[in-house]
Amino acid sequence: MEGSKGKSNAQSLFGVHQIPSDNHIRDLLDSVKPEQVFPVFEEILQVLEQQGQLRGYRSFAETLLMALDGTEYFSSGQIHCPQCSTRTLKSGETHYFHSVVTPVIVAPGQANVIALVPEFIVPQDGHDKQDCENAAAKRWFSQHGERYSALKVTVLGDDLYCHQPLCQQLLAQQFNFILVCRPESHTTLYEHLEGIERATLTTKRWTGKVEEIYTYRYLNGVPLRDGDDALLVNWCELTVSRPDGKVTYKNSFATNHTITDDTVAEIVLAGRTRWKVENENHNTLKTKGYNLEHNFGHGKQHLASFLATLNILSLLFHTLLERLDHKYKLLRSYLPTRKTFFDDLRALTRYLYFENWDHLLTFMLAGLELEIPPNTS
């Protein structure tokens, strides 16, 4: 485009006037740590907070729900670097992979999640034991906990996180928690439950097709583990069944929030919202056009984790636009699948020159014959 028109969208939309080769880009970025762009996550969160966007994410006890989960974003039997984790296959071969813990702000009824800075699972200096998801979560709270606890947060996570060291760390840093708590990994807690009568609450809901019976059970002040120093937590369980007795859902949670007949349903709803970190975050990044698992470049130092950070950051930028930019929000409502939207952007910018992003969005809205909102974003 620059050869034929004397200008290009790389210049107008991205400010790139000299385009390096793919290999040169990878070489330049390999030494850059992901932490270099972490301030951008914070700046976007501040904008959302200042614009009142976080109010819609307030949930139980007026807290923000922060869901944590780990996911892999690279795997190979051959390509590897010093930052790789490893697993030994049954064949005896070594498999290399990268994974990351991705905290996100979620809420029941909110389609978008708000990504926070990630924590990468990588070999740690001075540690013989391989890094793991739980250790990465502890590091994240040690490094960032003071900033986010000020927002009044309830942490959500699966059973992996529901153990005393992390729970004690969360409480010490003024976080609340609602964590999945399974019988097979919390034998002491469930043995304690067997000897005490638990409060039970039953409600019925009509789905539009069938009646569902919600049975809640709960007990406050049960030990999370064996020993005199065991942390006391509050336990609750939800079983969803049909009139014919078929169980469609069953799960249990441990929390520091006091559970009553008035609060148990809302606490369980908050706990169940944890799934959004998998569906609205991991699944979106991997299957909806961001291609998180694609090997854009592995490098020898930080390239894989840095590119993954840019990928996560791109989803956060799109969340920001959907919350605050009227043109973008209208356009996405008519192009609801991200892949369609990305494909359209790719095609348009290949053939046509646009002076800026507003010019591009306006062109797309006009092409769809949509009424263009005033430029108030």
Task: Write up this protein.
The chain is an alpha+beta fold and 377 residues long. It has 2 domains: 1-30 and 336-372, no CATH class; 31-324, Transposase Inhibitor Protein From Tn5, Chain A, domain 1, CATH 3.90.350.10. The protein is built from 13 helices and 13 strands. It has helices spanning 2-5, 9-14, 22-29, 38-50, 133-149, 164-172, 187-194, 264-272, 276-287, 303-324, 326-334, 338-351, 357-367; strands at 64-67, 70-76, 85-88, 94-101, 104-106, 114-115, 119-121, 153-157, 176-180, 199-206, 211-223, 232-241, 247-255. Strands 6-5-1-8-9-13-12-11-10 form a 9-stranded mixed β-sheet, with helices on both faces. Strands 2, 3, 4 and 7 form a 4-stranded antiparallel β-sheet that branches. The chain is globular, with a radius of gyration of 24 Å. The model has no long low-confidence stretch (mean pLDDT 94).
Summarize the structure.
With about 375 residues, the protein is α+β, with helices and mostly antiparallel strands.
Write the SSE topology:
Elements: H1 2-5, H2 9-14, H3 22-29, H4 38-50, E1 64-67, E2 70-76, E3 85-88, E4 94-101, E5 104-106, E6 114-115, E7 119-121, H5 133-149, E8 153-157, H6 164-172, E9 176-180, H7 187-194, E10 199-206, E11 211-223, E12 232-241, E13 247-255, H8 264-272, H9 276-287, H10 303-324, H11 326-334, H12 338-351, H13 357-367
Parallel strand pairs: 1-8, 8-9
Antiparallel strand pairs: 1-5, 2-4, 3-4, 4-7, 5-6, 9-13, 10-11, 11-12, 12-13
Helix pairs in contact: 4-10, 10-11, 11-13
